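Risk register update: the risk of archive-format incompatibility is retired. Evidence:
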Amino acid sequence: MGRTLQNTMVNLGLQNACDEAIYQLGLDMEELEEIEEDAGLGNGGLGRLAACFLDSMATLGLAAYGYGIRYEYGIFNQKIRDGWQVEEADDWLRHGNPWEKARPEYMLPVHFYGRVEHTATGAKWVDTQVVLALPYDTPVPGYMNNTVNTMRLWSARAPNDFNLRDFNVGDYIQAVLDRNLAENISRVLYPNDNFFEGKELRLKQEYFVVAATLQDIIRRFKASKFGSTESVRTVFDSFPDQVAIQLNDTHPAMAIPELMRIFVDIEKLPWNKAWDITKQTFAYTNHTVLPEALERWPVDLVEKLLPRHLQIIYEINQRHLDHIASLFPNDVGRLRRMSLIEEGGTKRINMAHLCIVGSHAVNGVAKIHSEIVKNQVFEDFAALEPEKFQNKTNGITPRRWLLLCNPGLAELIAEKIGEDYVRDLSQLTKLHEFVDDDLFIREVAKVKQENKVKFALYLEKEYKVKINPSSMFDVHVKRIHEYKRQLMNCLHIITMYNRIRRDPAKLFVPRTVIIGGKAAPGYHMAKMIIKLINAVAHVVNNDPVVGNKLKVIFLENYRVSLAEKVIPATDLSEQISTAGTEASGTGNMKFMLNGALTIGTMDGANVEMAEEAGEENLFIFGMRVEDVMELDRAGYKAQEYYDRLPELKRAVDQIASGFFSPKEPDLFKDVVNMLFHHDRFKVFADYEAYVKCQEKVSELYLNSKAWTKMVIKNIAAAGKFSSDRTIKEYARDIWHVEPSDLKIPPPNEPRDTAEEKTLNGTAA
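Archived output:
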């Protein structure tokens, strides 16, 4: 979620008033804002997408709730020591959190372990351990529409009789200390992005958020006029008309068997009716196609922790497979591929398959990703129910990612096309009229330059490196992962360095290369990549021959509040994943909206950005998805590229020989070995096209006017990538609710006046 203060002021239209008031008190608002901790309660893009979605849902007046876990420790703070990543606990609640309100009156029990008894009245889950879920509510204000929604985060609490109720006569002290075991559930966020770690505590977290949330939703449904009770028994027929639940990846997939358990075991609905309601309620968003990221929980673990849920999953699977067998007799291969249970070795539950079978809609997050989901990853399921599969291209909130972080540019745009674009970003197309307006071109360039100077000062303060603010700011910020190919950027840096050294007198377009992002603590290769970047930076930044032509900075502890500083100052945005691996990306959209040009592959939302702005207005290079598949068929031979490309050979040899690690010459042998022998993401195959494309970038940067014209064309084409547009599509195509841009009357305005205003139709 990042910080909340400035976002709240922006959305309430109070920023100028507050700035002025604070100034009159002899204080500086920006200094105050820097004191607030980021709420870092998720990993990378998936967590930030949820935050943008909450902002858009409130702005569109949807009655929507964001549910999650109130982690005591969020994503770790990253320190760089001697070039290595070191993790520190993110004690973000140390000074309290003024934005949250604990709601003990809505506390709910969550059950674990135990066993299942089959009785005449149905299954009973008994002898369980209970953990209490305490909700904390954070307000989510819409933009200038007097709407405030709720984000409800659950914290784990031990019941007061924890470990004291059962034959535990003796150790009272130990029993109280053991409360920590229950409360550990909400202690810490697992820091993996695009990687599945099948730990028991993680499964507990997933079930904890699901069980508490579903009880909360059903309580609210029963309290509403729709949950009409006939002789104490609730009628759930209207449930899917009143409730839509969106599963953000498979992490909350246990919601499907849990809702079935509530309907069948507790509310005594017949299975078929319960299943029909469940399917109509859930929809599933897929966020990655990397096989190592797909959740596959061992059956043994689920049986121990959630025995009734395992039985329900088996029943769902049996009926699912019976259905497929009736349509495709004797096709055992198809049954095996489509089963929710994977046999062979340890039996596992494929959570993506559970989500597809238990949902009425499945979507990818960019056109190309949704096609891969449909035609490759889940092709058997799509053959069965093609109408279930959709696309919903991701977006970003223009409130945080333009108004808040880049007020200079936001104001400049408003001067030309008015202020309405903030709620309807498609209006940015009006900027096309000003592409040839010399004054506007100069003003856009001036805002960028001011942002760069400000960020250069920040870098000099934090990193003690002298930055040339007229150099091209070439920025690559995102989680560190092999598929995102920070290594390819690194090879380009080494290539630029070698070119400067070979011919110091030759014209070179100066660059400041900024790379930032966190590596999962257990991801050895990602941590080596960080060390390599820092090792290269140390050599480049201290070589007098290079001077201020090339500087390399690894940005420590990349997070939302730092993104808000670096993105407005960026000239070139690096989006260079291997085609077919980045589901969408959202950083790419933030850079486009803030006046950076993109160098990237035809992957994720880059494809649609090129479609919107014209491919000639992005720096697109490298293999397309088809080329990657062809190369896989033929067999990727890294050595051939190394032998054929002298500049690649030189760079790789320098890494391998210890040129960047003279005290430890074989420090990077693992990295080099990976690049030659098991590089799934084919860095060498795109190196040549990447370097040539970077030459075109430098050439255009020399012509400031042509560069800025291209920037304006990009900003004018960024309208599609508002999360408002994304949420409108979810609302209409999946949730079946109508978004409204009506401003509801403020609470201080008398009701009758408010009603008179809306009498001629809409609100009535």
